[in-house]
Amino acid sequence: MPSYITMSTDISPSPDSTPLDPRSASGLELMQAWAANPGLDRPSIGRLLGMRPVAIGEGTVTFTVTPKPDFANPLGSVHGGICATLLDSVMGCAVHTTLPAGVRYTTLELKVNYIRSVALDADDLTAVGTVIHSGRSTATADGKVFAADGKLVAHGTTTCIILR
User: Fold this and answer.
1) What 3-state class would DSSP assign to 16?
2) Within 10 Å of residue 74's Cβ, how many Cβ atoms?
3) β-pair partners for 146
4) How far apart are CA 69 and CA 118, in angstroms?
């Protein structure tokens, strides 16, 4: 049975909290600590884009992001790289939740399919990443990005290399 933590966007970090040591905490523990203490977030792509954790569980991660004018492509809609980054993040972090302490990963391959465009003034995009396979040397996952109305915006797959 997976272990889940569901987050709201109004989480206040504990003033005396300190980040977990990545050498002694599992990927799931690290992800849950980050989600529970967003104020401890160090510079990252998630912070840059405003990604917010919604759910963290073993083998699955859900993040949201709110489109903003800085995400514009030359046509005036959300650049496809935003969805690609969101997918890379949720799929990679889903893989991370399956790894023991001290084990790292990195994206080896990313495949993205775009279904529809997203307006800059759209409501939140929600991305869900789910592990398909987590082995000794590689892991695979899939992900989906949904608009606020529940319509599929993009989906993808990844292969991650496991660094022991």
Assistant:
1) coil
2) 6
3) 126, 152
4) 12
Strand ranges of the sheet holding 125-134, from the earlier edge strand across to the other edge: 4-6, 52-57, 60-65, 125-134, 138-146, 152-163, 104-114
Tokens of 17: 């909290």
- DSSP helix/strand/coil, 46: helix
Query: Which of 137 and 18 is assigned the larger pLDDT?
Result: 137
Q: For 84-108, what is each residue's pLDDT tens digit?
A: 999 999 999 999 999 999 999 999 9
Output the pTM of the full model: 0.87
Residues 26 and 100 sit within 8 Å (Cβ to Cβ): yes
Within 10 A of 163 (CB to CB), how many other CB atoms are there? 11
3-class state of residue 113 by DSSP: strand
Structure tokens at 146: 């949904």
Residue 12 banded pLDDT, cuts 50, 70, 90 = very low
Q: What is the pLDDT of residues 38-63, one digit of tens each?
A: 666 667 898 899 999 999 999 999 99
